[in-house]
């Protein structure tokens, strides 16, 4: 397999409440439910857009996401432009989600790329960003990448 053949596929996330998380991800990422099951202990939802799978939610956990353990740091979703990031920010504010850095910020000092940083209902760190247009605000963490959630 050559390096050009490799690309990221969908992301699977363990959640504590499938209905709550499905509603959250549908609204924030503007995705559709492509398939789901609510059968007893086999509760899951496939979320995507235009038939392409982006996120799977699995109701297979309890508690809150542990950021102090090895494993996933955060998930990042790219959108075409900063207007899409601002739409996501507005949805997050509607939902009452706490936004890190109080809005859209660049990825770091001198960067034009950037976005909005927040947590899902189970504490998973998320980012929605655009490749350019975020340089209208200062970088919130001098000397460190914004997506570090410092």
TrEMBL record:
Which UniProt keywords are given for this protein, alphabetically ordered? Lyase, Metal-binding
PROSITE patterns for the chain: VOC
Family annotation (InterPro entries):
Fosfomycin_Res_Enzymes, Glyas_Bleomycin-R_OHBP_Dase, Glyas_Fos-R_dOase_dom, VOC_core
Q: Which GO terms describe its molecular function?
A: lyase activity; metal ion binding
Gene3D superfamilies given for it?
2,3-Dihydroxybiphenyl 1,2-Dioxygenase, domain 1
**Where in the numbering of this chain does the VOC domain appear?**
7-131
Q: Keyword Lyase: yes or no?
A: yes
Mind telling me what this protein is named? Lactoylglutathione lyase
Instruction: Look up and give the organism this protein is from.
Output: Actinokineospora fastidiosa
């Amino acid at each position: 397999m050559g390096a050009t053949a490799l690309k990221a596929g969908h992301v699977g996330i363990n959640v504590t409440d499938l209905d709550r998380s499905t509603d959250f991800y549908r609204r924030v990422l503007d995705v559709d439910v492509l398939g789901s099951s609510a059968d007893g202990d086999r509760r899951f939802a496939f979320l995507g857009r235009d038939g392409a799978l982006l996120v799977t939610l699995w109701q297979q956990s309890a508690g809150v996401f542990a950021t102090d353990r090895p494993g996933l740091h955060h998930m990042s979703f790219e959108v075409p432009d900063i207007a899409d990031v601002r739409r996501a920010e507005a949805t997050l504010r509607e939902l009452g989600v706490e936004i890190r850095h109080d809005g859209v910020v660049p990825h770091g000092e001198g960067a034009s790329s950037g976005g909005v940083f927040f947590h899902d209902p189970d504490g998973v760190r998320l980012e929605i960003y655009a490749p350019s247009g975020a340089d209208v605000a200062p970088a919130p963490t001098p000397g460190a990448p914004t997506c570090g959630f410092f």
